[in-house]
Amino acid sequence: MRDIFFMERDPYAPIRHCYPIEDILYEKKSEYQEILVVKSPHFGKMLILDGVVQVDERYEHFYHEMLVHVPMFSHPNPEDVLIIGGGDGGSLREVLKHKSVKRAVLVDIDKEVIETSKRFFPTLSSSFEDSRAIILNEDGYKYIKECNSEFDIVIVDSTDPVGFAHVLITEEFFRHVYNALKPDGIYAGQTESLLYHGEMVSRIQKDLRKVFPIVDLFTSVIPIYAGYWWTFSIGSKKYDVRRPSRTVDVETKFYSPSVHEHAFLPKDVYKKFINL
Ligand code: AG3
């Protein structure tokens, strides 16, 4: 048997991950990015966009459960949810576990990512056919600009901030998110690693603070993302976000009320890594 390796091209990491793989299952250049699906003996199938690993079958729940359930359980009754990005469907699957949700709009610019996930990642793409899901292939920035006081939760599940995704961490974008949210809405987005991307995290937190009255940061371990100690930024108009506001009544592999609370570190600990 021949050894095949996939070397990640992460634009922001001071390290290159190199994965031994069993097979290359799919390769395609879409209008927006290079899509690659490989199979690893340890991680299972992995979805790679423009050379950067986005999801693996083995550990994806650490990312999707945290990104989604922390804002969703901070809110007493999330009914309307917007996901920007998230074309693999993992965040949508978690959002739709909440019975209160009436409408989940997913806006991903690249239809091919959704098609690829449907074909190779059935456990991630299981909710695209849910009657509460509305799937749009548009530019998320343009979409949200037109929304007014519509959503309880806005989740940004994007690639790294390069190319078309870089606008999703700007102050202007956060202002559009704020306007798209109802008067008690909550925003959460993936904001890179605490260890390798401290300056970026500091800048995002500062810009969010110009827009939202309550701003915080929570973390999770994500073994496939270089930097590993991953951050999620959260902005809330009204509710405390450091603990769930209602009973946790969904099935999860990692998220729980105590994981929710512990995902937020004391502010003085964050200050060792970033400017808050
Ligand atoms: N989106 C976050 C990808 C960030 C990866 N960055 C990195 N490895 N440098 C993942 C999409 C999952 N729905």
| Elements, N to C (H/E) | EEEEEEHEHEHEHEHEHEEHH
How many runs of DSSP E, i.e. beta strands?
13
CATH architecture of the largest domain: 3-Layer(aba) Sandwich
- Provide the structure class: alpha/beta
Q: How many helices does DSSP assign? A: 8
Strand order of the largest sheet: 9-8-7-10-11-13-12
CATH superfamily of the largest domain: Vaccinia Virus protein VP39
Head-to-tail CA distance between termini: 51 Å
Percentage of β-strand residues: 25-35%
Q: Oligomeric status of the shown chains?
A: single chain
The low-confidence runs, each spanning 5 or more residues with pLDDT under 50, are none
Q: Helicity, in percent?
A: 25-40%
Task: Could you tell me the CATH topology label of the largest domain.
Answer: Rossmann fold
Unique ligands:
1-{4-[(3-aminopropyl)amino]butyl}guanidine
| Average predicted local confidence, pLDDT | 96
Give the count of structural domains: 2
Global morphology = globular
Specify the biggest β-sheet. Answer: 7 strands, mixed
CA radius of gyration is 18 Å
| CATH top level assignment of the largest domain | Alpha Beta
How would you describe this protein?
- This protein is α/β, with parallel strands linked by helices and 276 residues long.
- It folds into two domains: 4-56, Spermidine synthase, tetramerisation domain (Spermidine Synthase, Chain: A, domain 2, Roll), CATH 2.30.140; 60-270, 3-Layer(aba) Sandwich (Rossmann fold).
- 26% of the residues lie in helices and 30% in strands.
- It has a seven-stranded mixed β-sheet, sandwiched between helices. It has a four-stranded antiparallel β-sheet with strand order 3-4-5-6, covered by helices on one side.
- The protein starts with a strand and ends in a 6-residue tail after the last helix.
- The mean pLDDT is 96.
- The chain binds 1-{4-[(3-aminopropyl)amino]butyl}guanidine.
- 1-{4-[(3-aminopropyl)amino]butyl}guanidine binds at residues 10, 13, 52-55, 86, 88, 90-91, 157, 159-160, 190, 225-226.
